[in-house]
Amino acid sequence: MADRTASPLRDRRFMVLWSAVAAAYLAQWMLPVAAQWFLVGRPGGDVLVPYVQVAMTLPMALLAIPAGVMADRFDRRVLVIGVQVVVLAGEVVLVCLTLGGVLNPWSMLALLALLAGGIVVTFTSLSSMVPDLVETNAIPRASALLTIATNGTRVLGPAIAGFILAATSVGVAFAAAIPATVVLLIVLSVLKIPPPAADRMQERWLSAAVIGVRFVQHSPQALKLISRTFWFTFGVMALLSMLPVLATRLGAGASALGLVLACQGAGAVLGAVTLPRLDAMARQNTVVTIGFVVAGVSLAVAAAAPNTVVLGAATVLAGWAWTTVLATDQAALQMYLPGWVRARGISVMMIATFAGQAFGAAVFGWIGSAFSMVAMLVIAAVWLLTGSLLGVFLPLRDLGERDVSAVPAWVSPEIVVDAEAQARPMQVRVLYDVPFATEGEFVDIMAHIRLIRLRTGALRWQLLADPAVDGRYYEEYMVASWVDHEMQIRMRAIAADHEVEMRLRELVRGDPETSYAFRVDVAGVAAMRH
């Protein structure tokens, strides 16, 4: 039997994955420092500093869903390799323009946006591999280790970039990101992950994207996690996006700026180290709430910081809260999501993360310019402290034992469906005969069935009672096509949902009767005739 207490890093495949994430993020954290220093050194460039974060995060939010669809459909390793080749080309162009003296703020922001698009595909694909590489009870530790990779490089990246800027130039600092990308391509060449199932490859692009969004839309736990992620990142960016401006106004040079920026990564690594013990002592809901409170306090301290030492200490607290909140949210979502929709679900969380960062940087950057940096930080601190109340009014449920393993337990009925009918919307009707003694529990459990149907592909759902026959109920729901319905039951069914359906069967007499009907486009026929 495998040692379940062992570090996931003992698994060679996870170690390779961890190395790939670390390499990708080392390059990711070096580029913004060089870009922000490039802007700070230009007349009027302070105004554009927050837009470095916008350029780095908004494309991630816009491309997260397509990235999730691609990661669920294709060989993730091959996908990441192809994307990183494009990233490498973009980095080379950025360096050439800088060293040639022709780089301007807008071309730089455009190239940063291209590179950000590469990181969203890379991280979505790599992070969705975690449950395939480690056991379920090791997912929180694996997520914490990935957080160390992403945030440990948040220490190294800014520090390396800051020292390079102090010793050489912006162009050399941009060039320093290239070796990390090359390392990523090398380590990915030895990582072997099974490709997605053939059934998953048959999903249409738009349908696959919509299903991913609908799964999250009808999953209360996922919505709570994603809303917390957006709330947190939106508020904490008041400090993180404006650190270069805050530090330089306190007299920081290039080396000191790199160290202040590295404080966020140091705090994030500290958070990853302390998170396992905190998880053992408190529930996820409590852990996330603590993170919100610490982040709010850190911004309040930064607002009153008299020097870069205090600002750095506040940034360490913000980095600790960053890991505590986001790693907990991500691990909880990874354990909650079934394999067939995992990358798409994670991509929705990435949208929340990056949209929160982009809008937070833009909104609080405007507040800082229009009023003052102190007012900006105080408003953001109040926002984060208010977010801690989500733990009281919208608490997270403890779903650690939820079984999301696949249960393909359904066989298509023996009916002939021609190709044209297969593509038409279809109604599924299930007839239940419910004894009077179990009607109350039946209706309660049908509320869970409703969410299961809507998460796995139903477009509409309703429960009807027959007024002529006591205890006769009709469950009706629409799906986009016969193919979608087959995939709904054959590929998207999981053990936790199966248990709910088995409990439902215990509450009714006999086996439920299922019938199917395809939609007829009467309006289209009438239009052609008239």
From TrEMBL:
The Major facilitator superfamily (MFS) profile domain covers which part of the protein? 1-399
Which segments cross the bilayer? Answer: 51-71, 78-103, 109-130, 142-166, 172-191, 229-247, 253-275, 287-305, 311-333, 345-367, 373-396
Please indicate if the UniProt record lists Transport as a keyword: yes
Q: Which keywords, in A-to-Z order, does the entry hold?
A: Cell membrane, Membrane, Transmembrane, Transmembrane helix, Transport
Per the record's keyword annotation, is Lyase included, yes or no? no
Localization of this protein: Cell membrane
Which coarse location class applies to the principal site listed for this UniProt protein? Answer: membrane
Gene3D superfamilies in the record, alphabetically? MFS general substrate transporter like domains (1.20.1250.20)
Q: Which InterPro entries match?
A: MFS_dom, MFS_trans_sf, TM_effector
Q: How does it sit in the membrane?
A: Multi-pass membrane protein
Q: Which PANTHER family does the annotation name?
A: INTEGRAL MEMBRANE EFFLUX PROTEIN-RELATED, STAPHYLOFERRIN A TRANSPORTER
Instruction: List the protein's name.
Output: MFS transporter
Natural source organism: Gordonia hydrophobica
The top of its lineage is:
Bacteria, Bacillati, Actinomycetota, Actinomycetes, Mycobacteriales
